[in-house]
Amino acid sequence: MSAVRNSFFRRFSRNLPAVAGVLLILVITGMAIAGPIFYPAGPWKLVGRPLLWPGEDARFLLGTDVLGRDLMAGLLHGARVSLMIGISATVAATLIGTVIGAAAGYFGGWVDRLLMGLTEIFQTTPPFVLAVVVVAAFKPSMASIVTAISLVSWPPLARLVRAQFLQLMPQEFVLAGVVMGMSNLRLIVTQLLPNALTPIIVSSSLMIATAILLEAGLSFLGLGDPNVMSWGYIIGVGREVLRTHWYIITIPGLAVLFSVLAINLVGEGLNDAFNPRSRSR
Amino acid sequence: MTDDLLVIRDLRKTFSTPSGALTAVSQVSLSIKRGETYALAGESGCGKSTVGKIVAALVKPDAGSITLDGNDLTALSPRQLRPLRRKVQMIFQDPFSSLNPRATVRRIIEEPLIVHGLGNRGERRRKVAEMMDRVGLRPEAADRFPHEFSGGQRQRIGIARALILNPDLVVCDEPVSALDVSVQAQILNLLKDLQRELGTAYLFISHDLSVIRHMADRIAVMHLGQLVETAPRASFWANPTHPYSRALIAARPDPNPRNRLQDKPVLEGELPSPFEKRKGCDFRSRCPLAFGLCAEVDPPLRPSAPDHYAACHLVDEPDSRNHTAAA
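Predict the joint structure of the above. Result:
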């Protein structure tokens, strides 16, 4: 195992964009941790004159928004919200997608047709519209937002896991598991899932970026959790003064851009490190 | 009859494919005795692997019965079948896809014991080390992964996995055909040694008659899903009766350069489609001895010598032996 791990890390660390992505993610995580430390009063507090440009007042490095809230506080606390929602929605979507895809691929027949029918229903609905409907149906809160995002994100993963299972099932090591008397669950958990894990990890890592974007979009529309300030919320509030005070939406906008970019770089890096073209498996 | 380990009666399996129903196996009956090697020979696509998969309960037959030690396997539900599975194990053809790439060798060999709840951790580890030693692998290599081994070594891992449950029967589906010739003999001898030590019976599936000659106590030749000849080893090699068996034997490479392949009868003619319902003998289109009756009646297996059966119209005629021998 150590040999495999080592060559994996060597390949990953030789990939410069991926390493840059990791560094960026570390910076964003650092921001999320720093938020409550530097701004224990929270991002909602009105601290100064509204619409101060960055640098105009030394106390507010990034300036203030329409109501005089510190944009730096909003940026740091927003990192926390974005990361939390991105990761928890992805974990939930990965679980749903893996269970549904595994069941469809393993059992086949009517189970497969039923589950894939369900998946297609979700896939034919535009994800953002569906997420808006789900959040609007409940009260906007962290829980309902995570639910909505995971509900619209699992279908591609279910299809991926199903395809992996269909490819693995005829392989002889799986037949050997059947011959030795493994139960369905044991076969899925010990033989099939470990061999389907690589693409699941790669596409889940990319899913975090999509989840962050979805959350930003929901908050922009005013469907964010009113108790937490996310980047999308800041953008939504700042859009009214876009022409005069463009920095208000640009700062959180760049934050979204860089986190999504960083996560994509890492995801691609993982993909390349797991499946180098040179190594045929 | 009491030493029959496995008895198969009138097995039939049809696969539905996009181009219609394909009859892979029909009317196959055979019985395997404890500790013997029963070989299934035939060209690719003749259904011999399907018979092996049915015996290992990987494929459910459409008709017929498989009786293992008095238990009819076809009558059991998957759950009822599970405890019986430890009696029949399988060695696969491809040493690269037959081992879980994400598991260590120890885990792969230990897995059957875990599945059947045999022994505690320490006992299982000891058993794995013992089994690795027995198949010629260094027990210290137990923590490595399959990709670190060569094809022959991987096949040894597969053999250890199949034999650790001490099964009564092991289905060997082309166990050496993916290996280098130099490694083939090592694996075959290993299988023979293990059989002597453990008393396991083998259902040995191969297209290679040289391999079968080395291994088998009893030989069955399959052609297009049906058995055309079954015989004990001495009688089969001394007196192959079905014209198809003779053609297969003749096509075997001969190490003596003076016996050129050109001088031998080579099969000509088309194999009939396995999709259609056919009348008469399936082999007649390629048979050098075919005559009128062959197109009309499908010949059943008939005794040609003690315990030796062949499905050919020429078998029963008293003078046919001389006639076919001359051909």
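Chain A touches chain B through 21 residues (CB under 8 Å).
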